[in-house]
Amino acid sequence: MQLRIVAMEEGKAPTINSIRVTNQSRCFPMRLLGFMLLFIGICIGFSIINMFKIRYLGTQNIISGAQTLIQSCFQESNSLQNWIEPPSTYMHTLDDSELFWRASFVPQIKDYPFKRSPKIAFMFLTRGPLPLAPLWERFFKGNEEFYTIYVHTMPSYRANFSTSSVFYQKQVPSQVVEWGMMSMCDAERRLLANALLDISNEWFVLLSEACIPLQKFSIIYHYISRSRFSFMGAFDEPGPYGRGRYDDKMLPEVNIDQWRKGSQWFEANRKLAVDIIKDLKYYPKFEQFCTPDCYVDEHYFPTMLTIESPYLLANRTLTYVDWSRGGAHPATFGKNDVTLEFFRKIQQHHTCVYNNQPTSVCFLFARKFAPNALDILLQNSAQFFGY
Predict the structure, then answer these.
(1) Are strands 352-354 and 267-269 parallel, antiparallel or unpaired?
(2) In this predicted structure, what is the pLDDT of residue 291?
(3) CB of 387 within 8 A of CB of 147?
């Protein structure tokens, strides 16, 4: 501060000390400026070198490739293919509420603006293994364009099908299922929802690991695809195993006159499949008041669909089951039961209605078949079933 004052005082010349300090203060900014100019020069040099690399060493191709990728991604997200392609894998992290919401999307225009082969979704509800899989493999062979497969097992089960099997990687995310409980219907809805994610699936058949097909694929496909109705049993049974299971706490959503019973094993078209997975009105009532002795899987879907869409139901099942032996479970057929006469009785000795016309072809599937019946089924499948 003294030096500044001395230099500014009138009539006095600056002292030597003041001149030396001033010169040092001027030299320092000049040196800093030099460093800055050198740094800028180096940066400019690197920039020029990079420009030559881009021009002569092919880096432009990378930029061009990136632009193409961006353009491709943009087009992909807006293409029709992005909407109609089925999921690349069945495994996902959606919970049931998310899955049902996503699966409930329904196109409002019924004419599809693309080529579409309507398919049957074969949905297997099983504890684990599929012991009759070799018979199903033979049934499906050569018809890949017209079917899809979905398998719901216990969560801990891991299938070991070969990569050439039609069942390879066909498991959907699953949860524990208890017999007679609402978790059984949850599993069936889960299968339907996963199958609905594929826009090509038009019909949905519920099967168990003990089911077999009674006809060759072409007959089953034409029978189902040409039907004006879906095949779900829904009948009014006045006894203790029908109306006797009704609880009046289900009012007002369900009254006893609307209460229906039917087989668990059904075939539904896409409209009914969506109705089943989007239901929020009847589900809480059945979950709360159709207790284990009620066997909710025999009543929930038949009752709900009879109320909502009775005109779409054939009121019968396509799956043959023998209850003649009594008990809580149907008869199981082993190798000694499997004969040509046995299947003729199932396939020809019944009458029913198909598209409002009488027919003797009433069952396309049958259960329950024991694993030890597989060998004889395979040996005689051409004679028994035509495949």
Answers:
(1) unpaired
(2) 85
(3) no
